[in-house]
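stage 2 :: seqdesign
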């Protein structure tokens, strides 16, 4: 059993859904030594999230943004937490709905994602800063 772990800082991105699969693969080339295993990607923030979905058609990411903005709108008068602006509480809700981590199988030194799958960084803030990720891979 081997375990590899690295931290990565992703530069600030505009609000929306961004493919980061290549960045993850680049930061952890050690997965090539794992025949069978798992990789967990974890985001250390409460107003951004991670998910796995369509990697080919960018309109899917635009539709994700449209859906979540419609489902969890800004400026809801019922929100109590708005310390950092009207996108503050909606960003926290969206992050909880989406999740803070993804798990990817590793087979023969590569991520075993489906042909049309990619890892998304889901940025829910209007003016976000950089985001910290912890990437852990383990296997044999």
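stage 2 :: out
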């Amino acid at each position: 059993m081997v375990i590899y772990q690295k931290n990565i800082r992703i530069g600030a991105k505009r609000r929306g859904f961004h493919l980061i699969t290549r960045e993850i693969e680049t930061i952890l080339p050690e997965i090539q030594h794992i025949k069978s295993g798992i990789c967990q990607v974890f985001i250390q923030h409460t107003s951004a999230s991670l998910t796995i979905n369509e990697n080919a058609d960018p309109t899917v990411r635009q539709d994700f943004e449209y859906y979540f903005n419609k489902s969890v709108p800004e400026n809801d008068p019922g929100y109590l937490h708005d310390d950092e602006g009207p996108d503050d509480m909606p960003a926290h809700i969206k992050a909880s709905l989406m999740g803070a981590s993804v798990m990817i199988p590793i087979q023969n030194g590569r991520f075993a994602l489906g042909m049309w799958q990619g890892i998304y960084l889901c940025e829910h803030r209007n003016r976000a800063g950089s985001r910290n990720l912890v990437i852990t891979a383990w296997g044999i």
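stage 3 :: structure notes
- The beta strands are 2-10, 16-19, 36-43, 48-54, 101-107, 110-111, 117-123, 131-139.
- The longest strand covers residues 2-10.
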